[in-house]
Amino acid sequence: MIWLPLAATLLGAAALSSVAVLVSIRVARRLNSYDFPDEARKTQDRPIPRLGGVAVAVAFSILSIASLWGFGGSGSAALSMSILMPALLAALLGYVDDVKHLLPSVRLIGQAVIGLAAWTLGTRIEVLVGVPLFDLVLTVVVIMVVVNGINLLDNTDGLAGASVLVSALGAGIIAVIFGQELVSVLGFALVGVCLGFLWHNWFPARVYLGDSGAYFLGFLLAVLVIRLRPESLSREAGIAIAILLLALPIVDTFYVIVSRLRQGIHPFTAGRDHLSHQLQGAGLSVPKSVAVLQAFSLLSVVGAVMLGIASV
């Protein structure tokens, strides 16, 4: 029965991630790698270590390779590497962005290259059969949207990690329903590393993802959703499931972009104008604002799962 090994994968990933993040906090202190408060956007009361994303990437890499090898041998490990290599490139790009503060154009070009690498290694949206260029562009765009969506959600303690956890859990369950065992392993491993990270990142956070972690988790979530390919589903139902699984980052990104364009502000300008900030401005505490947004995400993900069940 697959649920037992999946539960073991989730718990193992959570434990490994929690320990790795704890180590990253100590390393960040030695390297003076902190996210410092400012008066506008970063309102924490003290500098926060920001190497949590590096720890998450290490934990996921180790756990996913081991789990997939256990499920399907060397062929599964090869599948894992085809996903991990561009994911680690995304983490590297995010780390460089953390340190050097890359221009938006440079970040987007780097993300597009990583999306192209993912396509080359087998992560592909196939909507128009016989028109590979369209599917290639669509795959790259979806990956970039999700990566930036999760990065934008990384604005409140616990929000980005919880958002990826909820979406990955839904994707993992749908993969089980349709017999995609290897995809389900990746999904539950992703849930586990997010859970271990949240142990240290829930309000008040002791560590941050940094852009490296946000890019890494965003890329993995995009790949996980793209690789869901239930054969009995219509194309329309498959698209609906993908949108429902990614509803929160999509809605938050759309809200922020529209809001900033209306104000004549560049969409990539940092600011406290996300949905979480609006809820906090209305009087909700940080944990309650995250809970409200996750309730929305959970309803959306449950809708995706129910649609999958109805299509079996």
Topology:
Blueprint: H1 3-31, E1 34-35, E2 48-49, H2 52-72, H3 74-100, H4 104-120, H5 132-153, H6 159-177, H7 181-201, H8 210-226, H9 235-245, H10 247-262, H11 275-281, H12 286-310
Antiparallel strand pairs: 1-2
Helix pairs in contact: 1-2, 1-7, 2-3, 2-7, 2-8, 3-4, 3-8, 4-5, 5-6, 5-8, 5-10, 6-7, 6-8, 6-12, 7-8, 9-12, 11-12
Structure description:
The protein is mainly α and 312 residues long. The protein has 12 helices and 2 strands; from the N terminus they run αββααααααααααα. The protein has helices at 3-31, 52-72, 74-100, 104-120, 132-153, 159-177, 181-201, 210-226, 235-245, 247-262, 275-281, 286-310, and strands spanning 34-35, 48-49. The mean pLDDT is 91.
Short description:
With 312 residues, the chain is mostly helical.
Q: Report how far the terminal alpha carbons are from each other.
A: 19 Å
Number of domains: 1
Please state roughly what percent of the residues sit in beta strands, choosing from under 5%, 5-15%, 15-25%, 25-35%, 35-45% or over 45%.
under 5%
Shape: globular
User: Which structural category fits the helices and strands?
Assistant: mainly alpha
Rounded to an integer in angstroms, the radius of gyration calculated over CA atoms is 18 Å
Q: Element order, helices and strands? A: HEEHHHHHHHHHHH
By DSSP, the count of extended strands is: 2
Helix content: over 70%
Whole-number mean pLDDT: 91
- Runs with pLDDT <50, length 5+? none
Strands of the widest sheet, in order across it, are: 1-2
